[in-house]
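Format notes (please read before filing issues)

Several people have asked whether sequences and structure tokens are stored in separate files. They are not. Every record keeps both together, in the order shown below: the sequence lines, then the token lines. Line labels are part of the format and must not be stripped during preprocessing.
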Amino acid sequence: MLYQMQFAGITAGIVFGSVPERTRFLPAMVFVFFWTTFVYDFVAYWTWSDHGFLQNLSCLGEASWPCRKGSLDFAGGGPVHITAGFSGLAYLVVLGKRKLIHAEHHNMVNVMFGTGVLWFGWFAFNGGSAGGANTRAAMAATVTTISAATGGLTWVWFDYYFTRKLSAFSFCSGIVAGLVGITPGSGFVAPWASILIGFITAILCNLCCRLKKRLGIDDSFDAGSLHGAGGFIGNILTGIFAQKWVAQLDGTDIIGGLVEGVWKQIVYQIVSSAAIAIWAFLISFSLLWVINKIPGLHLRQSEADEARGGDLAEMGEAGYILAAPDTTPKPITTFAALQERTANVNGNAVHPKGKSFFDDD
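Then the structure lines:
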């Protein structure tokens, strides 16, 4: 139970990757309670329970129920990544864009370090989903690292085509894409397939990130374009590359995927992914709309608090002191003055419609 609670907790955290620098903390925590209850818990049951309808799509309404012949999801492509990504997009729709972007990422060293920690933790995420220290868990960990490495290299070289820069940030993004893409299939696919999954997921998620920028969608840290899209893509690729012998490493029986001639497995994967995405978006949007109407639980920071930054406005502290405080500050009477003060303190501040290093165009 503790293991599954950790799943729920990290999934809720991913949601807020879509809406930093404008979200109030208290209503966000209220949202997390109801979101885990009505979104995550429902989808986890549908996906992993013996009686979950997504796991029994081939025998809905039949006497053979439950048959456990339906959607395949080993470690959470649907319950974790699709739910978080599409819930994040719902949060974004309700809140809108940031008025001021303080920084795309505040510390590249921390990005690299955090990605390494995340990659290491993903072995427990995927390998641990086998429920024991067995051969299938070892296979899940193996394909996880292969897909992550492939995704990282693919994203770097794909970006290099446009920028002629070998970016560490691109490498980290690709690693996450590869990890997300392999998650649903980690207990069903062979090592050779994990190379293709990492490659395909990285390319398609990269394109989703570029499309997001083109459309002006402020999915700030790519919860939708990386986790949502990557989980959806990984689910479909699981339907293509799933093989019986991998699942049978711990005695589990499946019908296999397209590589073994079972084309309908792709249909099950698409249906389940679409059902999860629609449920997550609609329920999240409804919860956010209601919470936002409750006095004292408005979701968005005030304009003044947003310009100061959430750390200072809601917690009274800052992660970094980038300049000596002005001991004789001028009175601030307008939002424009707050923006100017913030821009002077943080040299990385850019307007959402302005250019940044990673715009590529």
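For reference, the curators noted about this record: Residues 86 and 281 are 5 Å apart (CA to CA). The chain has a mean pLDDT of 89.
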